[in-house]
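(Deposited chain)
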Amino acid sequence: MKNKVVIQGYPGSFHDEAARKYYKTDVEGIPADTFDILAEKLNKGEADHGVMAIENSIAGTILQNYRILRENNYWISGEVYLRIQHNLLVNPGVNMEDIKEVESHPMAINQCLEFLSHYPKIKIIESKDTALSALKLRNQPNPYRACIASLAAAELYGLEVLNESIETNKSNYTRFFIVGRDKELYDTRKTNKVTAYIRIPDKKGQLLKVLQRIEDHNLNLSKLQSFPVIGAFREYFFHMDIEFDHIDQYFDLKDDILEVTSEYDELGIYARADISDAIFAKAKTNPS
């Protein structure tokens, strides 16, 4: 039975790839044009889980998705890292000198500007999704148009890879959360990471007290992201990722953090992803 998950994008998108990588099997991806629509579909019960990008090594943190997580009280059951490789795709038989237009998502275009700068006469067209651009090119063959999308999209839609790995920065990876509506049981033998958010009073040194407790317990704070509390001047939420070796280490720390925070909420306890294949994946360098 296929895992049914809501993805931001369409089959062949990077969210689709991330879902397949995480579940290590075939999945049925339910497309959503935006992250807010992803949340709507998840809340309606169209799937038990959604795949949501949370940060990119080049673009940084996707702030709106932390808001979506908090407002919907989603539970994070896992994470996955994906190496982002952009490719120039065409209908079979089209050559580089034929191309007059290139279509893709704005972020993909921005990450391929160095390659595109070698072709200043090519018109750039923005779309909602990389895979959607590939689907459009399959359904509406055009000898003068190319798109930027994944290798999975090329295979899925029968397109030819004219140039592989055209992104400017080859150390380009995205972290995705696997999220659901309900809190889930977790295997204490395998979990070694927690995502939580705290709210602290507007007092001198209050955040430092939290950080000092993490240091005292010798645990790793791998991410700290601040957000203002709406309607509360100079008060902030802080999203934290904390890594540990055994779940008891985390619970001991949690007891101490509760003493210096006005609010504490876990968003997920899960096994941290292996990032080696995403970060150190070798990409081919193509001549411009």
Q: What stands out?
A: The longest helix spans residues 206-216. The longest strand covers residues 75-83.
